[in-house]
Amino acid sequence: MVAQIDRADRIPEFVAHAFQVATSGRPGPVVLALPEDLFERPLTSRRGVPPTRAVGADRRADRRIRRLLGQARSPLVLLGGTGWTDAACENLRRFAEANHLPVACAFRYQDLFDNRHPNYVGDVGIGINPKLAQRVRDADLLLAVGRGWAK
Description:
By secondary structure, the chain is of the alpha/beta class.
């Protein structure tokens, strides 16, 4: 979704709609353009932005992941995206430890996993370590986790 807001009183409406679009169906980016003169106008509405829903794995997906992990010789977890809570990060850490999984973080998401943890293998992005890049290429299972595990 790309939209330009033409009136200050419509900002809450556009932001609420943008959150709904960005987090429903196939989640994706939203761009809202604000003309410079809007920053000089007063905003009288106090309408809030609806909370986003946490995404949790269903039982079928859980069984499939466990089956794939059981078959993998060289798995790798890649973390990124928004919506993470402290509890979600903790659950992911326990999952990685219990399954002896190496964890990498996407560019600008290095704070999702303790960089001093033994399971942490580095960040995947700009200036990636060549050994980590090879590890990503050699992975026979790449678990790309982009939303929080809030449960």
